[in-house]
């Protein structure tokens, strides 16, 4: 009886007006003044398409009814109605498994809209068994081809798996390339676990996340008194990784001076800590990763060519998510399970329509963006099953990156396309104004603010480094921070 709506409220007038409102749009509405009579009817009749339930009632209250229905009729959408519109009431309702929460007084048109959504949700449950069966046949998360936590049935990922297998008996250096979010650290970890060094340390360090003046100390350590604040000796990442693997992410951001020291370690297996006079000998396998085109950086003189050749013994390209769309269902199910475990909530599943939408999204942020989207859906999607309408709208606002371009050119092409679209919109707005002010006056401050924020994030708030990154003096950056009211 999916077109039937039940109303549970001890207020006669509320039951009457809601029955009339639902009947006016073609629903059969049945009303109850107490939980006992409603639960008894549920034993004798088919379940309705949705239940609108008040919270404060004599005898069993609405939250107790909700808990009972979660056990007896878990697929029944329950809309909680309450005069208490505070955050705690809403949270309690959703935590109890409510489909929706309506604070009284509410507009009857809003109640009708909620009823329509609840009915649609309940109808989709009827097709769920078929969806789940076909979904398992297509890409079940527990049957997906995976390696060390990396899921992938797409041909591009199978190439990665084969490369990891071929390298399993070797300790040769590997250079991982691919756009941000493609899983380079996961692959580096898998290379380590499937190598002769598997029982030794795996140490990861992101060059882009460390201020340039601290990278040398992070890599090679320092002796006591080497610089202000060095009150004790500290082992660097090379020493920590001795016998194992050191993963250097975003190697293209490494300063030239540090590149020279890294080259010596790779060639001789020795280094001096900052402030040290005795060399330290290590046996470390280096796996480097970048989203940049290192060949271009060597041509520009910002990356040493000899270091590039030393790192580029084996090159392994990780495909963007747009090149492995067949993996999206399995990846999404894995991330939904992961998010449910982290948040300690029931796992949510994807409808076939939602899967199709996910497979059509551009995914400029690649696997990391999909993982974050699954976390968002675990928290925000109303029902147990995720429909296409539940997906965040911003998934489809980014342009599709070119699959044939290299990482650098695809990133550049993407922001150029976004900028072009913004300029077109701004131009249309300007033409419609009686006295256009000029689109550059609107655009340039926006770009400056974005660049400042990104520079501060990249340098972890170090204004001197951020100013250098922007090509400004520190005073210019300070003035811009005040001008744009950007918090420091």
From TrEMBL:
Residues 150-379 form the Sigma-54 factor interaction domain. Residues 120-148 are annotated as: Disordered. Signal peptide: none annotated. One of its GO terms (biological process) is regulation of DNA-templated transcription. It is found in: Cytoplasm. One of its GO terms (cellular component) is cytoplasm. PANTHER family: DNA-BINDING TRANSCRIPTIONAL REGULATOR NTRC, TRANSCRIPTIONAL REGULATORY PROTEIN. This is DNA-binding transcriptional regulator NtrC. It comes from Idiomarina xiamenensis 10-D-4. The gene is ntrC.
């Amino acid at each position: 009886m999916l077109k039937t709506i039940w109303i549970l409220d001890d207020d006669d007038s509320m039951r009457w007006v809601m029955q009339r409102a639902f009947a006016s749009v073609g629903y059969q509405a049945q009303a109850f003044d107490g939980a006992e009579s409603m639960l008894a009817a549920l034993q004798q009749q088919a379940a309705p398409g949705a239940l609108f339930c008040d919270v404060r009632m004599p005898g069993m209250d609405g939250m107790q009814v909700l808990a009972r229905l979660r056990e007896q009729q878990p697929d029944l959408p329950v809309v909680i109605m309450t005069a208490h519109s505070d955050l705690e009431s809403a949270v309690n309702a959703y935590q109890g498994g409510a489909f929706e929460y309506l604070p009284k007084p509410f507009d009857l048109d809003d109640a009708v809209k909620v009823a329509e959504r609840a009915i649609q949700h309940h109808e989709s449950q009827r097709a769920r068994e078929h969806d789940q069966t076909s979904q398992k046949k297509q890409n079940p998360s527990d049957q997906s081809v995976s390696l060390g936590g990396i899921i992938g049935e797409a041909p591009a990922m199978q190439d990665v798996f084969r490369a990891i297998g071929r390298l399993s008996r070797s300790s040769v250096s590997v250079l991982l390339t691919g756009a941000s979010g493609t899983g380079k650290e996961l692959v580096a970890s898998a290379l380590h676990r499937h190598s002769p060094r598997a029982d030794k340390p795996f140490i990861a360090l992101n060059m882009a996340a460390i201020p340039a003046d601290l990278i040398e100390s992070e890599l090679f350590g320092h002796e006591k008194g080497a610089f202000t604040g060095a009150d004790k000796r500290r082992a660097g990442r090379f020493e920590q990784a001795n016998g194992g693997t050191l993963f250097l992410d975003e190697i293209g951001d490494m300063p030239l001076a540090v590149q020279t020291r890294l080259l010596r370690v790779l060639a001789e297996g020795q280094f001096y800590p900052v402030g040290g006079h005795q060399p330290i000998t290590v046996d470390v396998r280096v796996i480097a990763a970048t989203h940049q085109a290192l060949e271009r950086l060597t041509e520009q003189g910002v990356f040493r060519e000899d270091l590039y050749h030393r790192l580029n013994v084996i090159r392994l390209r990780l495909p963007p998510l747009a090149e492995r769309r067949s993996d999206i269902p399995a990846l999404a199910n894995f991330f939904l399970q992961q998010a449910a475990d982290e948040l300690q909530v029931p796992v949510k599943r994807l409808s076939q329509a939602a899967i199709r939408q996910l497979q059509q999204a551009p995914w400029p942020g690649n696997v990391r963006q999909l993982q974050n989207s699954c976390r968002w859906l675990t928290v925000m999607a109303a029902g147990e099953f995720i429909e296409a309408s539940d997906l965040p709208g911003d998934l489809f606002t980014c342009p599709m990156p070119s699959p044939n371009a290299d990482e650098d050119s695809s990133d550049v092409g993407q922001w150029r396309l976004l900028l072009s679209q913004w300029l077109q919109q701004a131009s249309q707005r300007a033409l419609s104004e009686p006295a256009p002010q000029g689109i550059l006056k609107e655009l340039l401050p926006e770009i400056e603010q974005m660049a400042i924020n990104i520079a501060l994030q990249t340098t972890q708030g170090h204004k001197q480094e951020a100013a250098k990154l922007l090509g400004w003096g520190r005073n210019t950056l300070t003035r811009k921070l005040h001008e744009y009211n950007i918090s420091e």
